[in-house]
Every structure is written in structure tokens, then in C-alpha cells.
Write a structure and sequence with these properties.
Rossmann fold; 32% helix; single chain
């Protein structure tokens, strides 16, 4: 039998990939930034729209990118599966956007609160910490599918619930980081905060990095009127596709020798020759192998029982007796041989 093995070296990064979370107040340009994925040279953009506002973006009718309106939050995981593994793969999507995570998370969290209040009859009760943790694991499957399983560039928009909260919380680098109850920051490479500023008589959008896993995007970095292509440009050339082209995805198959050992029938036949019943075999199988059914014994376990059985039989085999009544071997006495 041959067994195929995945070549670990084939899993080295083959292209530049960046996952960005964009946070900000309403009107700060989060959706506009997410749309710039369509013009970053990454392939066709699949835009998951939970707020149903993508219709306001140019090209959302399918001429530039595909905007998919999510009418109910439970549709989102199904639509993501469609785009990544289903019929949507025929569209050739090369990048993805979710606008917005806050809307999806809020609607699902609302369902949890309503279920708890309906169950308890208390209109003011809140979910327990255990219930919130369980929900978070389920909700974050959406982030895992988009940010990790897709293997593509992704933009996820979010909102800042309370202005000023980010000034009181810090990340692992000692910089300000607006944390969320949903854990979005753990799935992205870079998190930026968008705001609109006035310079002279002109409005500009400014993206400030508040969380980063890349030295190309230090915390505190600001980009004016940012685009996704501008972020990619800061990453350099990235891995060489030529270097990865010669690495096979699957290692050469090697023949695996199958262990062909004694069967249950052979075990029963040998036991019968030794005067043992099937019940005796079951007791031995339960004691030595932890198996209550002879048919479930592996070839190795059958071989072990046969070895024990033969060894036991040899120990119990009577010793030959000489004509003078003394024990002997091959017709010889224990002392001198017969003359």
C-alpha cells in the first residue's frame, strides 16, 4: 500500500498576504478603504456586506467587484463557505472584505441576550461569562475562515463603541489599542484606526496603526488617504514565486509494508489443539489485551496470545521417563549413558 505525504516545504508563503482590521467612527471611510482591495491587483474582490451599504460604493453592481448583502447574520458563514469552497470559486476571488464585523457580532450577541432573558424570564439579565465565551468561539469561526483559511488578503471593518476607551487600554507593545469583546485583534496582522481630519480647506482621511505584527507597520504610523495597495507597497516584494515553484506539494509515495499475521481462526484452531475453549480465549483476551470480542483482536494481539499459549503448553508438557523410573532425556539416564 502506498501512502502520500504532504511536503511541509510546500507550505512556505508563496505570495504577499496582509490581513487588516479597520476601525473608526461612522463616516470615517472604512468601507471606502475596504473597496480599494479591488484595485490592488489581487484578483476579484468578494465584499461581504452586513450593513447593506455597499450599494453606495462605485462598482458594487458587479462591474468592479461582487458585493454580497447579508440579510441575516446566519447567512454569513454559509456565504463564506460558498466563496471559499463552493460554487463561488468559479468567480476567481483573490481577496475578501467583511463590512462590518461589528454589525455581525452585535446581531449575534443580541440573539444570545434574548435567549437568556426568555429562558430566565428576567428582562434585565445578562449572559454569564461562560455563555459569552462559548458564543465568542462560535462567532470567531467567521474570522478564522476569512483571515486564515482563505489564504488571501482580507480587510475587516469594525467600529469603536466608546470614544476614549482606547486611551485607557494598552497592547503588548505598550501602545494604545482599542480592544473588542469579539477578539478581532487576534486574527489580523495590522489594525488601523481611521479618522477624518481637516487640513486647510480640505478633508483627508488618516489611518493610524494601533496594533501590528509586522515591522513594516510600526505602531503609530500614519498614512493619509490610504489604500490597500499603499499598505502592500510597504511590505516590499515578498516571497519569490520562482523559489516555491520547484517544491512539490506531495512527497514521493513510499510503499508501506502491511503486517500480515495470524487470524482468529488460526488462534481458535491452536487453542482447540491445546484443549482450550472459546471461553478460555475470551478470558485471556480480556486479561492480556483488554478486548472482549475475539473478532476485534489485531494481528499483533493474536500473535501475542498464540505465543503465550504455546509457551504455557511447553511448560506443562510432561517430561519423558526412562525404563528404570528415573527422568531422562532421549533414552539416557541423568547420570551415565546405558552401556
Amino acid at each position: 500500500m502506498e501512502r502520500k505525504r504532504i511536503n511541509p516545504l510546500s507550505r512556505r508563503p508563496k505570495s504577499r498576504r496582509l490581513v487588516i482590521a479597520v476601525r473608526g467612527a461612522a463616516g470615517s471611510g472604512k468601507s471606502v478603504f475596504a473597496r480599494t482591495l479591488a484595485e490592488a491587483g489581487l484578483g476579484r474582490l468578494c465584499f461581504f456586506d452586513t450593513e447593506r451599504k455597499a450599494r453606495l460604493l462605485p462598482g458594487s453592481d458587479g462591474t468592479t467587484f461582487d458585493a454580497i448583502e447579508i440579510q441575516h447574520p446566519d447567512e454569513l458563514p454559509e456565504f463564506i463557505d460558498w466563496a471559499l469552497d463552493g460554487e463561488g470559486r468559479a468567480q476567481g476571488y483573490g481577496c475578501y472584505a467583511l463590512d462590518s464585523w461589528a454589525m455581525y457580532f452585535a446581531r449575534k450577541h443580541r440573539e444570545t441576550i434574548q435567549a437568556v432573558r426568555q429562558r430566565t424570564g428576567d428582562p434585565l439579565v445578562q449572559p454569564t461569562a461562560e455563555e459569552l465565551t462559548s458564543d465568542q468561539v462560535v462567532f470567531q469561526e467567521v474570522l478564522r475562515r476569512l483571515c486564515i483559511d482563505s489564504g488571501a488578503c482580507v480587510v475587516i471593518t469594525d467600529q469603536i463603541a466608546a470614544r476614549g476607551k482606547e486611551e485607557r487600554e494598552e497592547n503588548e507593545m505598550g501602545k494604545v489599542l482599542p480592544m473588542t469583546a469579539s477578539g478581532l485583534e487576534y486574527f489580523v496582522d495590522v489594525m488601523v484606526e481611521l479618522e477624518v481630519r481637516v487640513a486647510g480647506f480640505e478633508q483627508i482621511r488618516v489611518a493610524r496603526v494601533v496594533k501590528s505584527n509586522s515591522p513594516d507597520f510600526p505602531v503609530g504610523l500614519e498614512l493619509q488617504n490610504p489604500t490597500f495597495a499603499a499598505f502592500l507597497g510597504r511590505m516590499g516584494e515578498g516571497p519569490s514565486p520562482e523559489a516555491a515553484a520547484g517544491v512539490p506539494d506531495v512527497l514521493e509515495a513510499k510503499a508501506v509494508e502491511e503486517h500480515i499475521g495470524p487470524t482468529v481462526d488460526a488462534l481458535l484452531t491452536q487453542a482447540e489443539a491445546f484443549g482450550l475453549s472459546r471461553a478460555d480465549l475470551l478470558i485471556a483476551a480480556r486479561h492480556y489485551c483488554g478486548i472482549n470480542d475475539l473478532e476485534r483482536l489485531s494481528p499483533e494481539q493474536i500473535d501475542d496470545l498464540l505465543t503465550r499459549m504455546i509457551a504455557r503448553y511447553n511448560e506443562a508438557k510432561p517430561v519423558a521417563v526412562s525404563t528404570n523410573g528415573k527422568a531422562g532425556v532421549n533414552g539416557k539416564r541423568n547420570g551415565k549413558a546405558q552401556g
